[in-house]
Specification:
The chain is built from four helices and three strands. Helix 1 crosses helix 4. The chain has 119 residues and is mainly alpha-helical. A three-stranded antiparallel β-sheet has the order 1-3-2.
């Protein structure tokens, strides 16, 4: 992943994971797989697990341990009411930012180039 993508992803990954969990409970590797299916192919599984620890500590998810055929029990993460509130705030913020970014993009000729200073 390019540096710019990595930096932008840092600010949005929590909301993306909460959005996945809003659909149904999931375990860490399943969440990583779903994100990779969405095109985030370079996403490291450890990044998702570190984020899951943070959102668990912040009280956004409930965790259930489910027996595994191989190794220790798996943690299944379920979005709770506090997590749903956080997700709603994420979508509100995302809408605000994306509208303004799109406006900047459209007002600058769509290609990101500027003609200022090129007289």
């Amino acid at each position: 992943m390019g540096n710019q993508m990595t930096e932008m992803l840092k600010g949005t990954l929590e909301g993306m994971v909460l959005a996945i969990l809003a659909g149904r409970p999931a375990y860490g590797s399943e969440i990583t797989s779903r994100l990779r299916d969405q095109g985030f192919t370079d996403l490291v599984e450890g990044t998702v697990y570190a984020l899951l620890v943070r959102i668990e500590q912040r009280g956004f998810v409930d965790v259930t341990k489910v027996p595994s055929e191989k190794g220790p029990p798996r943690k299944v993460y379920t979005l709770n009411d506090q997590g749903r509130e956080q997700l709603a705030e994420f979508w509100k913020t995302w809408g605000f930012l994306s509208q303004r970014i799109e406006h900047l993009h459209d007002s600058n000729g769509n290609d990101g180039s500027s003609t200022e200073g090129n007289d």
